[in-house]
Amino acid sequence: MEKEFKFACKKSHSEPGPGDGGRTGSWRVLRPIIDYEKCIPAKKNKKACFSCWLFCPDGVITKTKMPAIDLEYCKGCGICAEECPTGAITMVEETLLIMEKEE
Amino acid sequence: MYIIESGNVAAALGVKLAEAAVIAAYPITPQTPLTEKLSELVDAGEMDAQYIPVESEHSALAVCIAASSTGSRTFTATSANGLLYMNEQLHWAAGARLPIVMCVVNRGIGAPWTVWNDHQDSISQRDAGWIQLYACDHQQIIDSVLKAFRLAETVSVPVMVCYDGYILSHTYMPFELPEADQVKKFLPAFTPEYFLDPACPKNLNTVTLPDIRPDVRGNAAPGYMEIRHNLHTDMRKSLDVITDIEKDFKEIFGRGGYPFIEPYRVNDADYVALCMGSLSYHLRDVIDMLRDEGIAVGVAGLRVYRPFPDKAIADAFAHKKGLIVFEKALSYGNQGALFADVKAALYAKADRPFVRNYILGLGGREIQTSQLADVLRSSCRPSSTTTDTPEWIGLKL
Amino acid sequence: MTVKTTILNLPEEEYVHPGNRACSGCGLSIIYRIALKALGRDTILVVPPSCLTVLQGLYPIAATQLPCLNVTFASTAAAATGVLGALRAQGREKTTVAAWAGDGGTADIGLQALSGACERGENFIFFCYDNEAYMNTGVQRSGTTPRHVLTTTTPITGKAQKSKDVPAIMAAHGLDYVATASASYPLDLYDKTLKAKTFYGPRYLHIQTPCPAGWGFSPELSVKIGRLAVETGLFTLYEIENGQFRLTGQSAKMLGKKRLPVRDYFKTQTRFKTLTDDNIDEVQEEVDLKWKGYENDCALHAGIEYQGVKS
Lengths: 103, 397, 311
Hints:
heterotrimer, B: alpha/beta, Rossmann fold, 13 helices, C: Rossmann fold, eight-stranded mixed β-sheet, 9 strands
């Protein structure tokens, strides 16, 4: 009695994945550079501070003793640099870094 | 078992038999007794469902959309301006491919306010992507509710079950109450392809681009246009599903058998009156009268308006001499919507009948048997031609 | 229940994928990321059109790792009701249902559905991220846009009317838990979300959310500017728990202390550029009055009466 009707039932059901907006690192004008000499967890070699990790809108900073920034996706907003209590993060112009690399 | 109940209660009992799990509704005349009955059944423990008394029709359909997306069988009902207030939700439910069933207890639309019957409410929503079924009596109301759930869940398209306000909703008629075990045989449990589940997170109905794009596995996913095309093609395919369901229904319950057009003295008729809802049963008396006068006329009740059964219509009527389309709604500034659709369905046929259009009963204007007879007497003639503009019955200018 | 989460014990697990389309320095991105940590995996989200729709990603890829239902603008709380109805019908009631809307989706077009759902006592947490205008469509005024703010649909002298006090409207529904939060105090938001989860019934969180593009400041200042709103006393962090109003976090610390002048906040954003000295003095008086109310220990009254005086 039960007849099977197979329809290609294509609905707008998205699945989770990174990089929906592409490599958002390409949006960046300024690149955050961490000075581990000044960075509290790096300097003390223990889990501490992590203000940059807390406030990063895009969750691209690791909560590690030597915080690392995922430049693939970091949009370069600069909140991490602004919120770092020791001024360990500097925002450097991407163009300068590219020129440096080329030289 | 035969019982005598109102049309609204017939609908409610259908929803109970279908075991809808989430029901949301907002009161509006003449739908109200239907939702009161459901509320009562749930409160009395006779029905295991969540009854949610929402604060608007827009929210009623929002609840159904969300509950259906979460994997439950859902039902709502409304009339007139309530249906119009749902408008964006109607399109949303269709685009999201949710098998929601809704009763539309047909009523005229304000302004000016009217609470009486016509079909302008549901006809004005014909392009929302919902399947529209029209019932002619109490038996068809309860049966259509059951068929609607099966249809909606088979094709993932929401279904409206439309029936005339007051004429059917508030009158008491005997009808056969389907047995629960037969219903179980006819309507399997709702098993959605996907439902909102933290164990399998998906993001439903996000912004969709004009073009196709790869998904997380790199496979091409459809764009907006493909998704909408799919809705259209599935609605067209649902014509076959409707035929199939009608066959199954007849096998189990012994009733029905007319998926699209319910004919009365049509076979040997030269002329056919075509309409939707209870009017087709009203016209049966007129047909009998005219047959006695020697006029070869029959009446056909159209049961499905969207998807439009154009082939069924062309096959049934192309060889007739004339078709007279009676409508309780119109596309303002043009003609009756059904009339236009019927003409289009017959266009490809070389030897097609004339088609005439009569607008009647707007805002509950009384439809007199003598008026219907007069119109058919004057229309059912070989010399009649196809009209472009509708004529109005019972208009007192 | 009082929880005090620190940066060190805030869970590392992320629920939002990077590489999404939110603007650089987006305040919403901060609070969404943090609140989802508190909501946890067993959550279903309901979202109307807003900047979050953009952040969440375009079909077929989603930035959010939780199941999420996108719904029409006016229907958020009703849709959350529907999710809850189905979960009850299926015996899946342990799952948290959270609605997340902007100020327009909450205070304007979404208010009727929200009010209805609160009156029915639906068991959800409603988050309003208030960036004080329709940012997703390009900065048009909303019901929560503060007085004097410039938007694309206000006169050149700024909005003439006060903003509506949505937490007070919610509190008037008799909710067990209403709280305000700020994108600049993520831990406070995290703890309030955790606390909200302990209640049954409708719960409401109103989060002030700085928006670089819409407010007119440089993206790196998002956190600083939200903090200034609190430190000047313009935006107050509080909770109304079982009808009891109390200041929380930074706002509680400020009670009886000297606040930064509101001028400090106004000068940081171009949306306030047409504010006159008289306007600023007037707002300062209103803020002082609001804080006098808090200090006079008629806090509940003050909280409801004066929270609307954001600027």
